[in-house]
Amino acid sequence: MHKLLTTSALALSIASMLALPASATPYRQEIANNMRHCDGNSGPAIKVTVSGIRSASGTVRVQSYRATQAEWLTKGRWINRIEAPARNGTMAFCVPLPAAGTYGIAVRHDVNDNGKTDIRTDGGAMSNNPSINIFNLGKPSYKRVGVDVGGGVTPITITMRYM
Known about the structure:
This protein is mainly β. The chain is built from 2 helices and 9 strands. About 30% of the residues are buried.
């Protein structure tokens, strides 16, 4: 009987490991902007400096995605989201990531804090500062925004764009 329980427990343990791989990405994590995570070598993370913020009104939102065709800017497939009251000029964010890999960062400045994208007033930007135009409808290729992140902290600078 003891051997049967041990075998059953082992089988259950193996089944649970197969059901959720260690590298599984947690999605839709709303986190605080903890800059200490980007101090030293506590990565993987991206230290995002956002420049060109036009005003101190509203909220700045930073979201991380895997830079893949299936996940980049796909609804509900963001990994971490940080929201903070906007400050005029430059803001810094530390975005921890689940593992080394290639990621994209999307930034939005909701100037009037209504939770909607108002094209005429709100700002937006993405990692690697790709051009955004009518032909790509604000969704440049995941290849253009991808940032390779190793086991440490990768610094990037993103410049906000407004109409």
